[in-house]
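Hi C.,

You asked whether I'd gotten around to modeling the 183-residue construct. I have! Everything is below, sequence then structure, no commentary in between.
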Amino acid sequence: MVARRLRDHTLEGRALLRTCYVELYGAQDPRSGLGLALQAADTARTTSPAVTGLALLHAGEAHAMLGEASDCEKALARAQQQLEQTDGMDAAADLVSSTQFGRLAGSCYLSLGHHRRAQRFLEATAAELQDRRKSRAIVLGNLTFAYMAGRNRRGRGYAVRGHHRVGEDTGRRRTERGLRRCS
């Protein structure tokens, strides 16, 4: 790996994190994704709180996918600490947004079956994501699942209506029609 030869721990951590994404979300292999996320966090630990924090967020999601609630909570807490330390001197600071923690924490709690906790994170995050349509659509989709699993009919309507607006804003009429059929 070029980053390793250059001894650029931030770049190497980013490369490991991207590989982690493929394992977690592409191959649906949380064990492998967890190992890569932890390796990315360890690699970037001395050079980039941003990469370390993001890697720990995805480690938390891997733990959630595996049903490991306690380890998920620990990873989320460590991730939050790292993300709070990110500043302009971090070469990867541009990777961090104010909504990442809420998006991933909500997803973790949804995977763990903690629907009310997921709702709290996802509602707050959806309110912040007015300008990021794709991310907002994902959050609203997860929020809909949380409401459905928690049997919250009023909230489910909110999330579905919010998703309709995202579909209209981006011109994705198919998404809108598909949601009408489901509701």
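If it helps when you're writing up: The CA atoms of residues 30 and 121 lie 22 Å apart.

Thanks,
B.
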